[in-house]
Structures
1.
Amino acid sequence: MIRLANVVKTFNSGKPNQFTAVDDVSIEIRPLNLTVLKGPSGSGKTTLLSLIGCMVRPSSGRIFLHGIETRFARHNESAGSFEITSLPERFLNEIRRSTFGFIFQQFNLIKGISVLENIMLPAYPTGENHTALHQRGMGLLERFDIKRHAPSKVEWLSGGELQRVAIARALINNPSILVADEPTAHLDSRLSHEFMKIVSELKSKGKTILIASHDPIVYDSEIADTVVEMRDGRITGRGHEE
Amino acid sequence: MALYTLVIFVLASLIFFVHAIKRESTTILREAPEMVVQRQLAGRHELIPIDYIEKIRSIRGVDKVEARLWGYYYDPVFGANFTVMVPETKQLAPGRIILGRGVARTQRISTGDMVTFRGATKASLLMTVQEVLDYQSELVTSDLVLVSRSDFQELFNLPQGHATDLAVTVANPDELATIAAKIADRLPDTRPILRSEILRTYESLFDWRGGMMTVILFSAILSFVIFAWDKASGLSADERREIGILKSIGWETSDVLLLKFWEGMAVSLTAFLLGTNLAYGHVFFFSAPLFEPALKGWSVLYPEFRLEPAIDFLQLAILFFLSVFPYTAATILPSWMAATVDPDAAMRT
C-alpha cells in the first residue's frame, strides 16, 4: 500500500512564479488495485504520480510504502514499511527501478536504438546477466505480440506498437507497481480499449496500477477500483470504491 | 566523429612525417664529416686554397684533411638546379657520371646513356651515365650529380689548387671544439662548421618547439580545442531528453555518466586509431602527398621516395593525451550537468 499524508509540492518556491501543483493531498493507494487519477490538465495528476514514483520529493508531507520489498529494504529492520520522503537519492533510485514501472504520455523511448534495447534499458544499472535479461526482454515482446520488431528501431513503429514497447519496458524489472501518465492520450479508441485490456491482464497477475488520465475509456472502465478526482492540486472526490 | 578523425589524421600525419624526415636527415648527416672548414670572403663562402690542408694538418690532434669539390649546376633546359659533387669514396673515371634519380627522371636518361652539360666556358661536356643512385636515399640524393675531379674542374672552370671546402677528421672527438677554435685563430679567413651544429640546425628547423611545425601544430590543436569546446558548450535537445528518460526509468547520475564516459571513450579511441592508421598509410605508403609540396623544399625536382617508417611514441602519446582526454572530459561535463536534474523532467516533456 502507498500512503500519502498531507503532501504539498510547490515549484519555484519563494519566487514570483511560485506555483503549488499538489496541495495538501492525503490518500491511500491499495495494493493489487487499479487506481485512476482523474482531472483536467493542470490539476496536479502528473505531479502526484511523480511524487509517488519517487521522481521528486514533496515540499512538505510524507509518503509511506507498506508491504513492498525493495533490494535494500530486505536488509532493513523496517522491511516492508518505510517512509520514502526522507530517503537518500540512491535509495530513491533503487525504489524507482525495482518497485515502479513507468509508462509515459509521450512513451519516452530512446530513438536510434532497437526495440529490444529500449526494453532492456531500465535493467542495465542492476548489472544483471545479459543473457538472462535478453531472454526476459524477448519474453515480454512475445507477450505483447511485438517480437518481430525486436531488432527494429523505435522510430519505425506505429503508435499502438510504441505503447506496447513502453509497457514492456515498464515491466522489465518486474515491478509491483505500474504508473502510467495519460497512457491513452495518443491512441485512438480501439487502441485505448486494447490498452485497458492489457491493464486488466496485468492487474489480474497481481500488479498495483496507478493511472493519471482524463480519458473516459480509462476512468469509466469497469476494472478501475478507485477513481480519485483532482482539481487545482487538491482531491475533490472519489468513486468506485468498494 | 569524421571531424575528430580528420583532426587526428592531420596531426598524426604531421608527427609521423616530421619524425621520419628528421630521422632520415640525421641518418645521412651521421656519415657527414665531423668538421668542415670553409673559406670566407666578405662574409661569403669562397674557394679554399689547397695549401690550407697542410696548415690545418699541422695542428695537433688533426687526423685527416681532405679537399672537397662541390657546387650547383643550373640546367637551363629544365630550369632545375643540380648539386654537383666529386665523390670522396668512389673513384670516377673522367667522362663518367653518376646521377640522382630526380636528375635522371628530368633528363629522361638511364645507365649507359650519354648526357651533355654546358661548362662555364660554354664548351659542352659529354659524359656517360655510369649509375643512377638508388631509391631509398632519394630525399637527399634526388638532385645529385657525381663527376670526376677533372670533369668538375672543367665544368666550372675552377682555378687550379683550390677546393670548395675541407673535410677535417679529428683523432679525439672531444677536442673538436678546441681544434675548431685553433683553425679559426690560425686561419682567420676560414669558418669551421661542426656536424653537431648542422644537426642542431636541423633539429630546430623540424623540432616540436621550433620551425614551421609549431605553427601548423598550434593551429591544428587550436582547431581541436574549438571543436571540443563546441561539444562541451552544450548538449543537443535530443541528448538532454535521452538523459532525462534514463533518469526517469531508474538510472542514477553515476550510471548516466558512466555511459557517457564509455560513449566518449569509444568515439575518441575509434577516431584516434582510425586517424593514426590513416596517417601511417598517408605518410609511409603514399609518401605524404598532402604535405610533400609544402615541406620537402621548393626544387623543380620533387624527390619521389618512401619514408622509412619511424614512429615517435612519445609524441604519439602526447597527441593521445591532448585529444582523447579533453574530448572525453568535454562529453562528460555537459552530461553531468544534465544528469543532475530531477528525473521528473521526463514526465513533463
2.
Amino acid sequence: MLLYTLKRLALIVPLLWGISLVTFTLINLSPSDPAEVSLRINEITPTPEAIAQMREELGLDKPLVQRYTFWLSNLIHGDFGTSYVTKEPVAQEILYALPTTLALASLSLVLIVVFGLSLGIVCAIYENTFIDKAIRGFVFFFTAMPNFWMGLLLIWFFAFHLGLFPTSGLENPSGIILPAITLALSYVSTYIRLMRNTMIESKQELYVLYARARGLKERVITKHIVKNALHPFIVALGMSIPKLLAGTVIVENIFALPGVGRICVNAIFSRDFPMIQTYILFMALMFMIFNLMVDVITRVSDPRLRRQI
Amino acid sequence: MNNFWHKLRHDSLAMLSLSIIVGVILLGIFAPWISPNDPLQPHLSEKFASWGSDFPLGSDHLGRCLLSRLLYGIRTTLFLALMTMAITVTLGTILGLIAGYFRKVEESMMRICDVMLSFPSELMILAVVGMLGAGIKHVIIASVIAKVAWYTRMVYSFVLVHRQKNYLLFSQVAGVSSWTILRKHLFPFILDDIAMLATLDTGWVILSISALSFLGLGVQAPTPEWGMMLSEAKNVLSIYPMQMIPSGFAILIVVAAFNFLGDSIRDALDPKHCLIPKSVV
C-alpha cells in the first residue's frame, strides 16, 4: 500500500513537468505579444521602444529554451511570476482565493455524495416503480439543464422571492449554499444513474441469490449490494472532482464569489498571461492530488485491487 | 442496420427528440422569414415590453424582440455547436483510423492522446481560450482540441477490434490499397457508433458554447446567442425575472432532445455491435 502511494507520488513529478511544458507552449503560441499586452493593460502607448523595453523587462528577448528553464527554476523556487495587472505575485492572489473555491467544491461534493448515493439506492430498490421513474425523470431534466440558468433561477427564487439567502458575494457564509447546490445539481444526476445501474446489475449476481437462499433479510442483502456498488461510484467521483473544480468557474461568476474561477475569467479578459498560466498549473496540480487520493482510497476499499501493484 | 431503424422508429421519445431537433434546425434556417422583428434593431421606447402582438415574447433591455433574437440565436448556438461537432468527429475519425491502421504511428499518437486526455476538457477549453483570448472562433478551436483526443481514442479502439479479423487480413493480402480498406471496410463499421457519440456530445457542446458566451468569453454582442441572452437577463434578474425564461428554456429543450436521441440510438444499436459500455458516456 505504502509502496503504491510512493510510486504514484513519484509519478506526479514527470506529469507536472509535462503540464508546465504544455502551458508554456500554449502561452507562446498565443497570437498576441505579452509585452504589448502588458503595456496596454497599464495604459502605456505601445511604441516600438516601449515594447522593446518591456520585452527586456519580461525577459522575452531571450531564446525560448532559456526562457523556459528560467521560468521553471522560478516555479521550483515558488515564484510563479507577477500579474500584469496588479503587479502582485500571482501565487499569492490565487492562494488567497483558493479557500473559497475549495469550500464551494467540497460542499457540492458532499451534496453529490449524499444525494447521489441515497437517491441511487432508492431508485435501485424500488426499480421500475413510480418513485424510480419520478427520480429518473428529474435526473434527465437536470443533465440537460444549463447550470448557469439553474443558478439564475435559484437566485431569483430563494434570494429574491423568499429572501432566504444572499444574492451574491460571500459577506455571509450562507452565501455559499446556493452556488454549491447549483454546482451539485449538474453533476448529481450522473451519480444517481451510476449507482442505480450498478446496483441493479449486482442484483443478478450469484452471491445475492445465495444470500437469499440462506434466508437473509432483504435489508442485509441490500447492504451487501450497496457495498459492492460503491466501488465504481468512488472511481467515478474521483474522475469528476476535476470537472467540479473547473465547473466552479461558471458558478463563481454567477454568484460573484471571490474564488479562483473569477480570477481566471478576469485574467482572460485582461490577457493577464502569468495569472492564466498559474491558474492552469494550480488546477492541474489539484487534479493530480485528487486522482491520487481516489486511487489510494479505492485500493483501501477493495482488497482485490491491492494485489496488482 | 434495418433492425436499428425499425427500433428507432418505434421509440416515440426518440422520434419526438428527432422532430424537435429537425424543427429547431428548420426554424434556424428560415429565421429571416419567420422572425417578426429585426433581432438587432433596438426600440428604446419599448424596453422590457411584455408579451404582445409586436413582440410575441416581449423585448429585452434595449427593446429588441426576444423571439427574433431566440430564432436568430439558433444560428449561433446550435449551428456553431453542430459545426464544432462535425470538425471534431471528422478529425477524430481520420486520426483514429490512421492510429489504428498504420502501426508505425500508433504508439506516438496514442501517447499524445494520453497527455491530452489527462487534462479534463473543461480546463482544456479554459486554457486554450485563455491563451488565444475571448471570441467565438477561439471557443470553437478550444472545444475541438478538448474533445478530439477522446474521439481519436474511441475510433482507435473500434479499429483495434477489427484489424485482426480475417476479412481485413484477406483484403490486405489480396493487395487492396490501404485507402480502400479504410474507406470501404473500417469506416462503415464505426459509423453508427460515432453517430451515437456525436449525438450525445452535441448537447455538451451547446452547453459549453453557451456557458462561455454567458461568461462573455464566446460570442460577442450584439450577435444573438442563447447563453449571452441569459447573461443580459441576469443583470435585470430582480426586476424582470421573465427575461431569463425563453433563452434558458431553449437551451434546456435542445440539449434534452440531443441527450434523449443519443440514448435511444445507443439502445437501438445492436448491443453486441455497440462497443461502448453504458457507463462510459
3.
Amino acid sequence: MKKLSLFELLGLVIRRDLVLAMRRRADVLTTLVFFVMVVSLFPLGVGPEPDMLRKMAPGVVWVAALLASMLSLGRLFSADYLDGTLEQMLLAPQPLSLLVLGKIVSHWMVSGLPLVLMAPVLGLQFDMSAQGLWVLMAALLLGTPILSMIGAVGAALTLGLRGGGVLVSLLVLPLCIPVLIFGAGAVEAVTSGMSIASHLSLMGAMLMLALVFTPWVTAQALRISME
Amino acid sequence: MAINWFKYSAPSTFYELAGKLAPWFAWSSAILFVIGFYIGFFVAPTDATQGEAYRIMFIHVPASILSMFIYLIMAGYAALGLVFNTRLSSMMATALAPTGALFAFLSLWTGALWGKPMWGAWWVWDARLTSELILLFLYIGFIALHSSIDDPRRADRAAALLAIVGSVNVPIIYFSVKWWNTLHQGSTIKFTGTSMHAAMQQAMWSMVVACWLYAIAVVLTRVRSIILERERGTQWVSELEETK
C-alpha cells in the first residue's frame, strides 16, 4: 500500500465527507433553510421599520448563523460513531487530529459556507448597504470556520449522549461569544465609517488559534468519549 | 523527615481529613460572617455618594471574587485529574462547580439589587456584568455535561476538558466583551479609586475571608458525599460508622 502524505490524507477525508453529505442533501438544506427562516422571523417580531432593521441586521444574521451552526453540529461525528467508522479512525496510524481537521473542514463546507453565500441575500432584506454586505460576508467567511471548530469540541464531548443536541449548544454558545462580538462589530464599524481592520484581524487571529488547538482538543475529546 | 504528600490523595484518607476539617472551616466562617455583618451594618459609616445602598458590596464583592477564583481552581483540579488520572482531583472539581455557580449567581443578583438604586437599572450591559453572566453559563455547562454522562470516569474527563477549554477562553471572552462595550458606548460606570474607610475595609476583608471559609467548608462536605457515592462498593466505605 502506498504511503499517503498528510495533505493527501486530509484531502481524502474531506472528499469522503463531502460525498456523504451530497448523498443526503436534505440535511444540508435544512440548516440553510433554518438560517433563512430565523433571520426572516426577526422583522415579524420587531416590526418593519427600515431604520431599525438596518441597525439590527448584522447582529441578527450573526446570531442566526450561530444557531444554525449549532443545529448542524450533531451530524459532525454521530453517523461515523454509529457505524463504527470513528472507531477505525481512532485506531488508524495517522494522527487523529488531522482526520478530525478534515472532518471539520468538510463540515464547514456543507454547513458554514452556504450560510456565507446566503447572507448577502438576507442582508438585502434588511436594506443593508453594499459595503456592509461585503464586510458581512468577509466576517462570516472568517467566523463560521471558528464556529465549526469550537463546535467540534462540543460535539465530540457530547458524542452519544441523550439530549446531546441541546447540551452541545449549552456548552458551545458561551465560547462563541467573541466571534459574535467581532463579527457583528465589523459590519457595524463599516456602516458607521470606522476601520474594520481591527475586527477582521482579531477574527483572523482567533481563526489561527482555533485552527491550531481545536483539532487536537477535539481528538482528545473523541478519545475520552470513545474509551 | 519524609512527608508523604500523597497520603491524602486517596479518597479513603481524604474522606476522614475532610470530615475533621469541615467543621473548623464552617465555624470560623460563621464567626467571621457575624463580625463582617456587624462592622458592615453598624460600624461602617454611610457612604457620601451612595448612601446606605453601598452596603450590599460587602456580599457582592466577595461573591464576584470567589466566582472567578473558584472557576480557575476547578479547572486546575480538573486538569490534574485529567493528566495524572487522580480520582480525588476530579471529585474536587465536581464538588467546586455548584459553589462557584452559586457565587456567580449571587454576584449577579446582588449586582442587580445594587444597580437599581445606583444606576437606575437592574441590568446594564457593562463588561463586568456580561462576563460574569457568561461565567455563570460556563459553570452551568460544566455541571450539565457532567450530570448527563452516566459513566463517572468519562464524565470527569469530558467535563475536565471543557473546564480547561473554558478557562483558556475566559480572558478572550473578557477582553472581547470589554472592547465591545467601549465600542458601543463609553464606559459609564467607573470604579473610582477613592480610598475606602478603614471600617469598610475591615468589613470587606472579613466578608471575603468568611466567604472563602464557607466555600471550603461546603466543598469539603460535598466532596465527602461524592466520595461515598463513587466508592460505595469498596471495603472501607462499608466499614464506616455512618454507612452502617
4.
Amino acid sequence: MATELHRQVNSPEKESGQEQEDGSGGAAVRVRSLTRSFDGRAVIDNLQLDVPAGEFVVLLGRSGCGKSTLLRVLAGLDREIEGEVLVPRRKAVAFQAPRLMPWKRVWRNVLLGLPGRPGRAVAERALKEVGLDHRVDAWPKTLSGGEAQRASLARALVREPDLLLLDEPFGALDALTRITAQQLVAELWQRRGCAVLLVTHDVEEALLLADRVLVMDGGVIAHQVRVDRDRPRDIADPLLAELRTELLDRLGVRAPEPAVHKVA
Amino acid sequence: MSPVLEPVVPLSARRRTVPRWLRRTTGPLLLLVLWQVSSATGVLPSDTLASPGTIAGTASDLLKDGTLPHAMLVSVQRVLIGLALGGVIGIALALVSGLSRLGEDLVDASVQMLRSIPWVGMIPLFIIWMGIGEAPKIALIALGVTFHLYLNVYAGIRGVDAQLIEAGNSLGLGRWGLIRHVVLPGALPGAMTGLRYSLATAWLALVFGETINADDGIGFLLNRAREFFQTDVIVVCLIVYAALGLLADFIVRTLERLLLQWRPNFTGK
C-alpha cells in the first residue's frame, strides 16, 4: 500500500504550503537533519529517521529524551523546527489522555474535523472496529479509561491515516486494560496496514508490538533493533527476553536476572 | 473470653419522626405567625409594617384590578431589553478580546477600566444624557449585565483546555472549526455563570432605575405607595421583585441543565 502525497512540515518562517514530490515512494516518514531547540537547548539534535509505509515502529527513551517532541513534530503540532520533515497528508494522532471533547457525544467526537459532512454511520463503523459500538451516544464523562482511549483510537482511525502517531496511548490505563488495548492496536494495525509510530517507555510493550524498536537518546536515534517474530508474540519468548535486556541496557537500566522471573 | 458483639445499625433503620422539609418550614412559619400576632395586638403598627393578612389581601386586590400584572409586564420588559442589549455587547466584546491577542490588547484594558466605575453612580449622567424615559433604565440594566457577561465569557474562552485545542488541531480543524467546536462550547459554563450573575445584577439595576424615576412598572407602584405610607403595597412589590428574581434563576438553572449535561461535575438531575 503506497503512501500518497507527502507534505512537508514547514517551519513557520517558510510557510508557503509547498508540496514536495520526491523519490521516497513507499516511505511514510522521512526526516533529515531535524533539530528542535527549547531556549537554545537542542532536544532533537540533527536527527535522521525513515519509516517505510506500513511499518510498526516503537520509539523508546527515558523521560525528557525528546521522543514526544519528535512525535509532535511529525504530527505537525510543533513547527519551530529546522531540517526536513516529510509525513503523509493523512495522519492521525492519539494522545496519552484521550482528549475527547467533553461537550460532544462519542460519535460526534469521532467525526470531528473530518472533511465533508460524514454521517453517523461512518462513526458507528469506526467505533465498531474498536469494540465500542454500544457507546455511540454516550457522553465522554461516562466512559471508562479504556473506553475513552478506544474512542480516541476510533477518532484517529476514521481518518484512514497512512501514518498513525500514538503518544503513550496506554500510559494512563491500568495493567489489565493495557493488555487488551495493546492487542487491539496490533489487530487494527494488521487490518489497516498503515505505518504506526508509537512512543512509550515500556520495553515489553515495544517488543510485543514493534517491527522495529528505536531508542532515542541525546536528541538522536541512538540505537535500533529489529523484532523478527510473528504476532501474537509471547513476552516469555527467549529472543524477546534477550532483546529486552539489550534495550534496558541501552536505556541505562540493569535488567534483573532472568531466573528471578521464573521463580514466580 | 470472647468479645461482646453489638450490631452495626444501618443508617436507614434510624427512624426520623419529622421529615426534613417540614422541620425546615417550621421556622419561617413561626416567624410569620409572630408577625401576624404582633400586628393584631398593635405591637407592630400598620404604618411601620402591614400585617401578613393585609398584605395578602392587597396583593390579591392589585392582581385582580390588573395594576400588578401591568406593572410586572412593564418591569420584565425593561429587564429583557436591557439583558438582550447588555448581553450582545458583553458577549461581542468578550469574543473580540478572548479570541485574539490584538482584540485583547484593544478591548480588555478599556473594559477593565470602565468596570471599576460603580454602575449605580452612572444614574445622574444617564438622566442628563437620556432624560427620564425608558432609555436610562434600560441603559443601566444593560451596563450592569455587560460587565458580568464580558468577564465570565472572556475567562471561559481563555480557560479552555489547551490540550483540547491541540487535539482539534491534530484533527484538522481550522480556525473557525476550532472556535465553533472547541472554544465556544468550552466557554459555555463560564457564559452560564455570567448569565446568572447578570440576571441578579439586572434585577438590582431595575430596582435602582425604577425607584429613582418611573411613571410605570413595579418601581412606580413602590414610589407611589411610599408617598401614601402604604406599607402593604411596598411589601407586595418587594415580594414580586424577589419572586421574579427566583423565576429568572430557575430559568437559568433549567438552561444549564439542558446545555451543560456533558459536564463531568454535573450532579443535578
